[in-house]
Amino acid sequence: MAAMTPRSRLNALSEPARQVLFYGLLLLAAFTFILPFIFMTGTAFKPPREVYQLNLIPHQPTTDNFKAVFTQIPIGRAVLNSVLAYGSITVSVLLFSSIVGYALSRLEFRGREFIFNVILLTMMIPGQLLLIPLYLLIVRFHLTDNLLGLILPGMMSAFGIFMFRQTFKTVPQDLIDAARIDGASEFTILTRVLWPLSLPTIITVGIFTFMGGWNDFLWPAIVIREQSLMTLTQLVTVYAIGGQSGGQFGAVMASSLLGVLPMVLVFIVFQRYYLQGIVSTGIKG
Amino acid sequence: MTELSAAPPLPLVMRRKRSNPWGYLFALPYVAHFLVFTAYPLGFALYLTVHRWDIVGNDQPFVGTRNFQKLLRDDLFFTALKNTLIFLAVHVPLQIVVALALAVVLNGPIRFRTFFRTAFFLPYVTSGAVIAIIWTQLYAGDGLLNGFLKVLHLPPQGWLTSTTLAMPSIAIMATWKNVGYYLMIFLAGLQNIPPSLYEEANLNGATGWQRFWYITLPLLNPAMLLVLVLSTIGAFSLFVEPFVMTGGGPVDSTLSVVLLLYRNAFQFLNMGYASTIGVVLALIIFLVTYLQRRVVEQELTY
After folding, report:
1. pLDDT tens for each residue of B208-226
2. Contact status, residue B102 vs residue A28, Cβ threshold 8 Å
3. Is A178 on the interface with B (CB under 8 A)?
4. In this complex, do A103 and B22 lie within 8 Å of one another by their Cβ atoms?
5. Which of A184, B97, B151, B242 could disulfide-link A188, Cβ–Cβ 3.0 to 4.6 Å?
6. For an interface test with A, which of B20, B30, B283 has the most A Cβ atoms less than 10 Å from its Cβ?
7. What is the tens place of the pLDDT at every residue in A78-100?
8. Which CATH code of 1.20.1270.90, 3.30.559.10, 1.10.10.10, 1.10.3720.10 fits the domain covering A68-284?
9. Cis peptide, bond prior to residue B250, ω within 30 of zero
10. What is the distance between the alpha carbons of residues A100 and A116, in angstroms, rounded to a whole number?
11. pLDDT value, residue B38
């Protein structure tokens, strides 16, 4: 009942006034979500004397901060490292998730349900539990300061297998039987029949795998110490907090901008697949 | 499918015959990866809890329950646990309220839906570490946030320098960062509610609030449970934000459990004790999320 008072007051407003109020509040909320990005971008283009002023748009924009970043840290190399490491992981996850997902959804064999239950169980293991033994394993393999140390643990994804299994389950059996009668091998059925029918799943699993890796800081921070092998997210973070930026706040924001830009672009291009991906993680939980 | 279930059950021998060797071959990569990168580390994590190892030498003496005893006497562990729970207490309810409110708005008949959805989702796709770098500056003494307060003639706050304010400040940032993700889960849940229910309620003269309390909220229970459990797991995993923004300070007031684990492992090279912290944290996560499932699901079936 307490809610009635403001509500009746709202009702007393004319319809256009209510609309203005509603969209005004919504715009304010949206602005709150974009503001830190505007602040970062504005500061990245500010000359040093403007950096501590609160104007969002620089009065005299400069690219000096970006020049400083490019001369002080190997940021191009970091982009390459990230693309190599997380590109490999993404390709591997897509390939193996679809292979295993095919076996779990379409091939009869003993132990299938057991393997699927193990996969569901592994999705519930908190990452911190495996952090230390996984690091010790990488040390034992002599893969610290090696991109393989980033890649190997991430090559398989329970989430990816789950997604492909669900997708392949919906493919009509007739299509698979027809291919078998034509003499197609199981691998051909996967690549020629199932893959072309699963494009949304391929894109969804692909972007979530790539994004999850790209944005990760903890695992690279543990495995990689050598600056020339750092991932972009790692290098940008180390630059900001490790003192190498020498407190040049504009340069820190410039490197941050470079750090988030790739994922923002991927998001803009593939926007509609993100919703699908999250709804599917919902099923998983 | 109906044909299959209608068929009489095959004798066991025949069923075994139907095992497709390709099935084993295709499942093999997963099994191999699982054994090396999940099962073995899991076993080794448990092994480490009853051993001491500084990683430099080969010496791994058995210490029994000494790591667990140390944990129970470690004031820092309880400080870290308390801090993590403060983070959770601010973050989880705030996350649910904000994400649900925005989802309800986005589910309604609004203009520029794509623009608003993109805006709310943007922080989620970007790196938490970089977001933390940006917010460190927004929260700074002479930063944007205190600039706003000044305009409003309010006193400036030590967002990250006050022992009482630092953790809530980090929790607010984390909520801002993840709202897009949870909003999408709620949105999917909202879209599963049949519109006919609302139409019927309208005919019976229900107000907007009544529709929300008696239709939307109960039918959103699965989404609510999911958001509750996932944001709780996320809260217990808190690491990169304090690592970047405060280093655990001031006076350990933002030291999280995972940050403590990280310090013990990679600064003090105390692998056995760090692993013990990891195992205990995992047990706490299992326990808390299990209780959440029990309580929230009970409400559904009352």
Report:
1. 888 888 888 888 988 999 9
2. no
3. no
4. yes
5. A184
6. B30
7. 999 999 999 999 999 999 999 99
8. 1.10.3720.10
9. yes
10. 10
11. 95
